[in-house]
Amino acid sequence: MTQAFSELSLAEPLARAIAEMGFSAMTPIQAQAIPVVLQGRDVMGAAQTGTGKTAAFSLPLLQRMLKHENASTSPARHPVRALVLLPTRELADQVAQQIALYAKHTQLRSTVVFGGMDMKPQTAELKKGVEILVATPGRLLDHIEAKNCVLNQVEYVVLDEADRMLDIGFLPDLQRILSYLPKQRTTLLFSATFSSEIKRLAGSYLQDPVTIEVARSNATASTIEQRFYRVDEDDKRQALKQLLLEKGVKQAFVFLNSKLGCARMARALERDGLNAVALHGDKSQDERLKALDAFKKGEVDLLICTDVAARGLDIKDVPAVFNLDIPFNAEDYVHRIGRTGRAGASGIAISFVTGRDVKQLAEIEKLIGKKTEVEALLLGSDQRRFGGAPSVRQNDGQRLWSDPQARAEVRSERPTRVRAPRASSDPFFDQPYQPPATDARPAWEGNAQPASARGLSPYIKSRKKVAALFRPMAAAAVESSTEAAS
């Protein structure tokens, strides 16, 4: 049975913001976590991605901080009281936007800081004073070392996508940040997956936490249809184009494991006439935000991305997710396909499996608790060989000759080329080969000089004799001594 937000008795500014955003009923994670956070308890919340974890921690924190709101312009009256840490820049920007929407009818201030952008505008916002600070760990440490923000009055700490932060090596940064915070605080951990290592680690940060799991750990949403197709590495782009046409997909996430592969796939799809844009870690933050914004507005059909876009991005009504590469970590599969089927909507997740993905596929099956069925995907012969629609041959610069029958068919269709005999420029080269006489000697041996008595080679020229300009010193000394004696 679903519960309504009206049952929470939230403050009027927050209730009005929720109504304006069109939310009426709470999701399971919200219904269980919000009352606990309102009591001031520490929480470990695990739920499927796309189930509203952001509202589950931001609404009760805003409710508890309303006692601190004021209209003063003094930065001292607006210290940082809530700190929200996230692993990626895109996720930090998204969470900051949602918190700003929830708090727009209050006088609580919020801002976001993350890397890849100039620090000066962020510093200016921090100097004005903010109650809610959303940040990535690395950039937050930069501002702490520059003395742009003070965290000695923080009352609430939120670690969103905590497992991802620890996976990408943020543990030292987190420990440094937490050392700047007061010991008495409320700490919340939210993520779609929780490993045993993270639970042990959370034991050192949380005090008597309440564990909330609204679904089986690492489960995928039931609204997502999962399909697996056996596709050769060289056929992935053509398989993607064929499935987009067959399934009638207008917009989708397309995930790859490498930045280089992501960029190449985006360029290849653009050459094929598809509206695609790449999103990966090598792009500047401005380019990443523009690509994400264009995808949200529907200006881009395919977002070709790495796992930088796999966590927490809330883009509604995306009907499909394609895994052109099976992720290295099974947990990332859960997050990738969680970009579709959000807020109860239906979606489809299609993964391409090659012979090298057997181990990763077995780990995914173990994680989600389901046996996957890998289907064979048949591509049209013309489409397989030339990269275009059937009966329309387009050379995309990548010929596939793995099929002997297809190779024979293509060669038989080629016109036979008959080359005219080329006139010889020198008749000497048209003569047949004639071996030399056995007693014939090379011409250069006829000019050889006989070997000298000293045994030197006849081809080494002797040193020329030059008249001496001076007599040797010994002979001159002998003559002078003879003259003196006479």
Rg over alpha carbons: 38 Å
Oligomer: single chain
Beta strands, count? 14
- Structural class by SSE content: alpha/beta
What is the averaged pLDDT score? 81
Strand order of the largest sheet: 3-4-2-5-6-1-7
Helix content: 25-40%
Q: What is the CATH architecture descriptor of the largest domain?
A: 3-Layer(aba) Sandwich
Characterise the protein shown here:
The protein has helices spanning 12-20, 28-38, 53-65, 89-102, 119-128, 137-145, 162-167, 171-179, 196-202, 236-247, 259-271, 285-296, 330-337, 358-368, 381-386, 404-413, 443-446, 473-485, and strands at residues 43-46, 82-85, 110-113, 132-135, 156-160, 186-191, 210-213, 224-230, 252-255, 276-279, 302-305, 320-323, 347-353, 374-376. With 486 residues, the chain is of the alpha/beta class. The strands form 2 sheets. The protein has a 7-stranded parallel beta sheet with strand order 3-4-2-5-6-1-7, with helices on both faces. A 7-stranded parallel beta sheet has the order 10-11-9-12-13-8-14, sandwiched between helices. Helix 2 runs parallel beside helix 3 (53-65), helix 3 (53-65) crosses helix 4 (89-102) and helix 13 (330-337) crosses helix 14. The termini are far apart. Residues 382-402 have low confidence and may be disordered.
